[in-house]
From TrEMBL, chain A:
PANTHER family xref list: ABC TRANSPORTER PERMEASE PROTEIN-RELATED, PROTEIN TRIGALACTOSYLDIACYLGLYCEROL 1, CHLOROPLASTIC
Claim: Transmembrane helix is one of the keywords in the record: yes
Pfam families per UniProt: MlaE
Record protein name field: ABC transporter permease
Residue ranges that the Swiss-Prot or TrEMBL entry lists as coiled coil: none
Keywords from the UniProt entry: Membrane, Transmembrane, Transmembrane helix
Transmembrane segments annotated in the record for this chain: 27-53, 133-161, 181-203
TrEMBL record, chain B:
Pfam name, any one: ABC_tran
Name the UniProt record assigns to this protein: ATP-binding cassette domain-containing protein
tRNA processing in keyword set: no
SUPFAM superfamilies: P-loop containing nucleoside triphosphate hydrolases (SSF52540)
Entry keyword set: ATP-binding, Nucleotide-binding, Transport
InterPro entries given in the database record: AAA+_ATPase (IPR003593), ABC_transporter-like_ATP-bd (IPR003439), ABC_transporter-like_CS (IPR017871), P-loop_NTPase (IPR027417)
Source organism of the structure: Splendidivirga corallicola
Source taxonomy: Bacteria, Pseudomonadati, Bacteroidota, Cytophagia, Cytophagales
Signal peptide as annotated in the record: none
Xref: SMART domains: AAA
Molecular function, one GO term: ATP binding
Domain ABC transporter: 2-238
Length: 242, 250
């Protein structure tokens, strides 16, 4: 409870006494590259395989001849857009970006680099953390869109190669009964998750105390706390919006 | 001039600083000395505001820093340069970017003016042709020099150094000490150096404050430090054989 309060104060401190706008633009672009672009390969690989695996497993479970085959791709589509792309990718994102952010800020803390910023009269939390949070908010939804697309494409190839579904059936299945709100919902989720992962990891890194050992611990707890927050938020959003 | 009044600080129920007062004059190297763990670094952090003291006040040329509002605090902070124990250079920036950083953030100078100033400061601390090197590629002594250059680049009025020569060989240590003294006199800065190295005490101590278990038990300068009859100070000063030998001969 106490740490939730401290976390809220930390989030508040990001927005007071900021530096010049132009400083932030440059930092945000750098962070977009570090956070978003550098996660692209990992996210693509994971998304493609998740799509492929869901197709094959859904086909395996739908043994009844009464159910038309195109249901497979329909299931893959909804599963991907609603849950796999935004939420599972958020866990992957927490593992890669979260640990990275916590490690970087933790190292800056224990080597007194954050103190050095403070002594210069710079609001170190907004200077270091705000660009990361904004960059995550910009790039993570993009990653989710790419992940959803690749996942459906991965399912397509897996389905055709294993001959569980034909091309026309797959395409028909992903088009039938399409509800646009699922995409809106996925994007809302991705904004929330991006904020949670980047801010929780920053918080964990920023308040590291001690030495190299504690930096490692901060990285680990950044990932575990982010994952718990993602799952909780996932459940709450599903209850509220679906 | 920096004045501290009755600074007290307790960590987890354990008093570290038990009421310390003193005056640090301009244009002189002021030293805070004492054994490891007596709270020197904590006192320095209280002075620059990285730690808030439980009681007491810090005045920068008469301006109360402890109770200052946000704007005054930032105004004073922008006049402070600090050299940290490990250098605290930004890992992701090269030497030049490290030194130019305070100018980028705090001034409206043009690119050329900034570069001129950076090169002047790097030259002043005896570093040339290392502008593009990363902190991980330079030696400990060079890191300290870059740290000093970064601390003075924005025409700081106050310079703080925490153990400027820890981890350096005795010769380099003295070069760094003297560099700090020269810069202090040349630019008329108020300098406070925290150290437990007797070599620097004898070399650059214009004013010396000796801390023992959270109290100031002695103050003076490098010429009268060997003549005091404070037991704790003598134990500290004459801890090594060389100093004991000198004492016998005098
Ligand atoms: N943030 C903190 N929280 C709790 N205790 C602290 C904190 N900072 C320092 N201390 C304690 O204060 C005491 C003094 O520490 P300090 O770092 O000031 O010593 P020092 O005189 O600088 O020693 P050294 O010469 O080894 O650097 C130590 O016992 C330390 O455990
Ligand atoms: Mg210390």
């Amino acid at each position: 409870m106490k740490s939730i309060g401290k976390y809220c104060i930390f989030i508040g401190s990001l927005f007071v006494n900021r530096e010049r706008f132009s400083t932030y633009i440059k930092l945000i672009i750098n962070e977009c590259i570090a956070i978003g672009f550098n996660s692209l390969v990992l996210v693509s690989i994971v998304a493609t395989f998740i799509g492929a695996v869901s197709t094959v497993q859904t086909a395996f479970n739908l043994v009844s001849p009464l159910i038309p085959t195109y249901v497979i791709s329909q299931v893959v589509r909804d599963l991907t857009i609603l849950e796999l792309a935004p939420s599972i990718m958020a866990i992957v994102f927490a593992g890669k970006v979260g640990s990275n952010i916590a490690g970087e800020l933790g190292t800056m803390r224990i080597t007194e680099q954050i103190d050095a910023l403070e002594v210069m009269g710079i609001n170190s939390s907004s200077y270091l953390v705000l660009p990361k949070v904004i960059a995550a908010l910009i790039t993570y939804p993009m990653l989710v869109v790419i992940a959803a697309y690749l996942s459906i494409v991965g399912g397509y190839f897996a389905g055709i190669l294993t001959k569980v579904i034909t091309e026309t059936e797959y395409i028909y299945g992903i088009r039938v009964d399409f509800n646009e709100f699922t995409v809106t919902f996925a994007l809302i989720k991705s904004f929330v998750f991006a904020f949670l992962v980047s801010s929780i990891s920053s918080y964990k890194g920023f308040y590291t105390r001690g030495g190299a050992l504690e930096v490692g611990k901060a990285s680990t707890s950044a990932v575990t706390n982010s994952c718990i927050a993602i799952l909780l938020a996932d459940y709450l959003l599903a209850q509220l919006l679906l | 001039m920096i004045e501290i009044q009755d600074i007290k600080k307790t960590f987890d129920g354990k008093p570290i600083l038990k009421g310390i007062s003193g005056k640090f004059e301009k244009g002189r190297t002021n030293l805070i000395i004492g054994a490891s763990g007596t709270g020197k670094s904590v006192l320095l952090k209280c002075i620059v505001g990285l730690i808030k003291p439980d009681e007491g006040h810090v005045y920068y040329d008469g301006r109360d820093f402890t109770d200052a509002d946000r704007n005054l605090k930032i105004e004073i902070r922008r006049e402070i340069g600090m050299l940290f124990q490990g250098g605290a250079l930004f890992d992701s920036k090269n030497v030049e970017q490290n030194v130019i950083f305070p100018l980028d953030m705090l001034t409206d100078m043009s690119k050329e003016e900034k570069l001129d100033r950076v090169n002047f400061c790097l030259k002043r601390v005896g570093l040339e042709n290392v502008n593009k090197k990363m902190p991980s590629e330079i030696s400990g002594g060079m890191k300290k020099r870059v740290g000093i250059a970064r601390a003075i680049v924005n025409n700081s009025k106050y310079l703080f150094c925490d153990e400027p020569n820890s981890g350096l060989d005795p010769q380099t240590a003295i070069v760094i000490d003297n560099l700090i003294k020269e810069i202090t006199e040349e630019f008329d800065i108020t300098t406070i150096v925290v150290t437990h190295d007797m070599n620097s005490v004898m070399e650059i101590g214009d004013y010396i404050m000796f801390l023992y278990e959270g109290h100031k038990v002695w103050e003076g300068n490098d010429s009268n430090i060997t003549e005091s009859n404070v037991k704790e100070l003598n134990d500290f000063v004459f801890a090594n054989k060389l100093m004991r030998t000198i004492r016998k001969e005098v």
